[in-house]
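Hi, here's the filled form for the chain we discussed.

Project: internal
Contact: R.S.
Residues: 206
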Amino acid sequence: MLTAQQLHRQLAQILAGPVLNTGNDPIEVVRAAHQIREGAETLMGAAVQQAREAGRTWQDIGDVLGVSRQAAFQRYGKPIDPRTGEAMSTSPVPEAVELARAVIDDHAHGRWADITARFDDTMRAGLTEEGLAEAWAYLAGLAGAYESHGDTDVVRTGDFTVTNTPLAFEAGSFVARVVFRDDRTIAGLFILNPEEAHDNTGSATT
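And the returned structure, exactly as it came back:
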């Protein structure tokens, strides 16, 4: 594994490339930008691990990142499964962004059956197509018509992949939180106020 210092040097080289060589093909600049993003996230993970080894708390790290200590841990922690004593997977479902946006698109077009078809057994027993439609109508009554969605944030939490996607309505904003199992079934579906989503709390409205 690369050290934080090595990662820092590597990232600096990547950052300098597109700037120093202005004759690059634009697609090469895109490729370099992608490397920068991937490298920065790797560097962030290494930096957080270094901070933890130095005794800094998750609250300290969360304060720097502008998130709660729980959100910082969920993104960069190395949880141990209390059932087995083994390290838990921290890798989210690869297609999580696409899966979450499909759920949002189905909401926007009233395809309730397509959503419930992806529910796990618990969700299927507790939430009907009529319930989904009623909750979406409730949001329309609060904030008008749905307009668009923002970028989806993805995090692994225990056995689940959690996605949070900002939603823009005519007169308000919400966050769609969709929880997926590793088999891609939906284990949770929530529409939260942005403040609730930021705090990683809140109750379901769908």
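Let me know if anything looks off before we file it.
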